[in-house]
C-alpha cells in the first residue's frame, strides 16, 4: 500500500527545490533518512504522526557527474484497447504540448540529464501482452546488452523472472526503496522471495498508476433511480461499499428499451463490461480472498482455495450473470461497450482504469460521471484493495548488462523516480486526475482511496505462470454461470504447485550463485 500523497504533493508544489520525502504511514515514529550512498549525510530529524514525511532531505547525488554516459531504455509504446501508452510520461513528447503532465515529463528528463550529466536514450517496443514474454526472452537469451532498462508488462515478464534474465535490483546500491517514489510493498508482494527483486515499480513507471482500476457510475441515472449519488460516496467513505450493496443498485436497472424481449446493446443495464475475463480482474483483487500466504522462508504458498473464494464466486456470479448485467454484449468491443454507458444506458461501467479518464470520450461525456473504487467482498474486509491491470508496465534490468554498471543504472533510475514524484506526479495526479478529469470534489477523494490501496500484486504477476490458478479459476466458473469454484481450482492445483516449486528451485539456485560470487 502506498502512502497518501495529497499533503506531500501539495507541499512539493510550493517548493522550488525538493525538501521533503515521505515515510510510510504505517511507521510514524522518529526515524532517520536512509543513507543512499556511502558518506551521505543523514538529514532527517523527526517525523510527526500528523505530518508523515521526511523533512530536510538533501540530494545524495548532488556531486555526481557521469560525464555524458547514456542510459538506454527499451520502452513499451503498445496501446491496450482504449488505453493509450504511458510512454508520453516516460520518454515524454518530442516538444512542449501546453498540457501540464507531459510538459513536466519533458522538464524532468532535461533536469535529470543536466544534474547527472547523462543522456537518456529510448527505443520503442510495441508488443501485445501475449507475445511480450517470447520476444523479450529471445532478446535476452541472445546476450544482447543494448538496453540498461526494459519497461513492459507484468503479465508477460513476471513468470520469466526466475529464469535469470534480469538483475536483482537489490544489487543496485543507489536504490532507496524506502523513499515515497517507490512502491516498496507492492514490489515485495510481486517478488517470489524477499531477497530477490526483479521488477521495479515506482513513480517513473507511471503505467502502474494509469492502469489502476476504477468503477465509473452515471450520477444522472442514479439520481433518477435512487436519489442523491452522494449516498454512494458515503458508502465508500463509511467502509460500507460491498459486493452486496453494488448488486442491490445494479439489479433494478434493466429496461428492454427496444421492446424486442432480448438483452442487446440497445437496452438499459445496471452494469456493462466488454467481456468476462479482463473486467473480472479488479473484482477479484478488490475482494481480497486470500490468494497466497508466505512461508517462513518467504516463498509464496497458494491459499486461494478457501471459504472467502467460495463466497466471492457466488457473489460475483450473481453480479455478472443477471438480467441487469450487460457482459460481452458487443462481442468484445471495448469502445462500443463504453458507448452504452456514455449514452446514458448503464448505471456502472466496468474495466476502466484511471487513465481512461484522460480519454476525450469521458472528458466530453454528457452524462455526469462519478469515480469509485471497486467494492469489498463484505464489511468484514478491513480495507479497500485496488488492482493495477496485469498488463501494467514495470521496469526490468537485463542481466546481460554488466554487473558493474548497476551503480550507474540505480543512480539514474533513483533520480528519475524522485523527480517524477516531485515534478510529474503533482501535475498528473493532483492537477489532471483529481481536477481536470473529474466532475466533483468527492471523486477526487475516491481517487485517493483507489491510489492508496494497491494490493494482491502477486496474483496479477504470477497467475499466468501458475496455470491460471489465482485468477482465471474464478473466471472459468463465473463465465460459465457456475458457482463451483472448488472443482475449477482442483483441476489446476497439481500443475500450479509443480510450476511454483520449479520457480522456487530456480530462485534458490540464483541465491546460491550469488552467495558464491
Describe this structure in words.
With 517 residues, the chain is of the alpha/beta class. It is 38% helix and 12% strand. The strands form 4 sheets. The protein has a 5-stranded mixed sheet with strand order 10-7-11-6-12. Strand 8 (292-294) and strand 9 (300-302) form a beta hairpin.
- Average pLDDT level: 89
**Tertiary shape:** globular
Note poorly predicted spans.
1-53
Number of helices: 18
Instruction: Report the C-alpha radius of gyration, rounded.
Output: 23 Å
Find the count of extended strands (DSSP E, 2+ residues): 13
Keyword list:
38% helix; five-stranded mixed β-sheet; globular; alpha/beta; disordered N terminus; 517 residues
Amino acid at each position: 500500500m502506498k502512502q497518501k500523497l495529497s499533503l506531500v504533493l501539495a507541499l512539493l508544489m510550493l517548493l522550488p527545490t525538493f525538501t521533503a520525502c515521505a515515510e510510510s504511514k504505517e511507521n510514524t515514529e522518529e526515524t532517520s533518512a536512509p543513507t543512499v550512498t556511502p558518506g551521505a549525510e543523514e538529514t532527517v530529524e523527526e517525523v510527526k504522526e500528523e505530518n508523515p514525511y521526511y523533512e530536510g532531505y538533501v540530494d545524495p547525488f548532488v556531486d555526481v557527474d557521469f560525464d555524458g554516459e547514456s542510459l538506454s531504455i527499451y520502452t513499451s509504446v503498445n496501446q491496450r484497447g482504449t488505453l493509450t501508452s504511458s510512454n508520453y510520461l516516460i520518454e515524454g513528447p518530442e516538444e512542449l504540448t501546453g498540457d501540464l503532465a507531459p510538459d513536466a515529463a519533458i522538464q524532468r528528463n532535461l533536469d535529470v540529464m543536466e544534474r547527472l550529466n547523462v543522456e537518456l536514450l529510448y527505443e520503442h517496443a510495441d508488443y501485445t501482452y501475449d507475445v511480450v514474454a517470447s520476444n523479450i526472452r529471445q532478446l535476452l537469451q541472445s546476450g544482447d546488452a543494448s538496453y540498461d532498462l526494459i519497461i513492459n508488462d507484468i503479465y508477460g515478464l513476471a513468470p520469466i523472472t526466475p529464469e535469470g534474465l534480469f538483475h536483482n535490483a537489490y544489487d543496485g546500491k543507489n536504490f532507496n526503496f524506502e523513499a515515497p517514489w517507490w512502491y516498496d510493498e507492492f514490489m515485495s508482494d510481486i517478488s517470489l522471495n524477499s531477497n530477490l527483486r526483479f521488477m521495479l515499480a515506482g513513480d517513473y513507471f507511471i503505467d502502474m498508476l494509469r492502469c489502476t482500476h476504477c468503477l465509473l457510475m452515471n450520477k444522472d441515472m442514479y439520481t433518477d433511480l435512487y436519489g442523491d449519488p452522494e449516498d454512494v460516496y458515503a458508502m465508500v467513505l463509511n467502509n460500507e461499499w460491498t459486493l452486496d450493496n453494488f448488486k442491490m443498485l445494479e439489479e433494478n436497472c434493466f429496461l428492454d428499451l427496444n421492446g424486442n424481449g432480448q438483452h442487446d446493446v440497445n437496452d438499459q443495464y445496471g452494469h456493462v463490461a466488454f467481456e468476462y475475463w479482463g473486467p473480472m480482474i479488479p473484482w477479484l483483487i478488490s475482494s481480497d480472498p486470500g490468494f497466497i500466504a508466505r512461508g517462513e522462508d518467504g516463498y509464496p504458498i497458494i491459499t486461494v482455495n478457501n471459504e472467502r473464494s467460495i463466497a466471492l464466486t457466488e457473489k460475483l456470479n450473481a453480479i455478472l450473470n443477471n438480467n441487469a448485467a450487460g457482459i460481452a454484449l458487443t462481442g468484445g468491443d471495448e469502445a462500443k461497450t463504453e458507448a452504452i454507458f456514455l449514452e446514458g444506458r448503464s448505471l456502472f461501467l466496468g474495466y476502466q482504469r484511471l487513465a481512461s479518464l484522460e480519454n476525450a470520450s469521458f472528458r466530453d461525456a454528457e452524462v455526469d460521471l462519478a469515480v469509485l473504487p471497486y467494492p469489498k467482498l463484505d464489511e468484514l474486509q478491513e480495507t479497500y484493495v485496488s488492482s493495477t491491470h496485469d498488463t501494467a508496465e514495470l521496469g526490468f534490468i537485463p542481466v546481460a548488462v554488466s554487473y558493474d554498471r548497476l551503480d550507474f543504472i540505480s543512480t539514474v533510475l533513483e533520480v528519475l523516480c524522485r523527480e517524477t514524484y516531485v515534478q510529474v506526479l503533482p501535475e498528473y495526479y493532483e492537477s489532471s486526475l483529481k481536477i481536470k478529469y473529474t466532475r466533483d470534489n468527492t471523486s477526487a477523494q475516491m481517487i485517493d482511496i483507489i491510489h492508496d490501496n494497491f494490493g494482491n500484486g502477486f496474483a496479477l504477476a504470477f497467475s499466468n505462470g501458475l496455470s491460471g490458478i489465482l485468477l482465471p479459476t474464478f473466471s472459468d466458473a463465473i463465465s460459465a454461470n457456475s458457482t463451483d469454484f472448488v472443482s475449477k481450482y482442483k483441476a489446476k492445483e497439481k500443475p500450479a504447485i509443480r510450476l511454483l516449486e520449479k520457480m522456487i528451485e530456480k530462485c534458490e539456485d540464483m541465491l546460491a550463485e550469488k552467495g558464491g560470487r
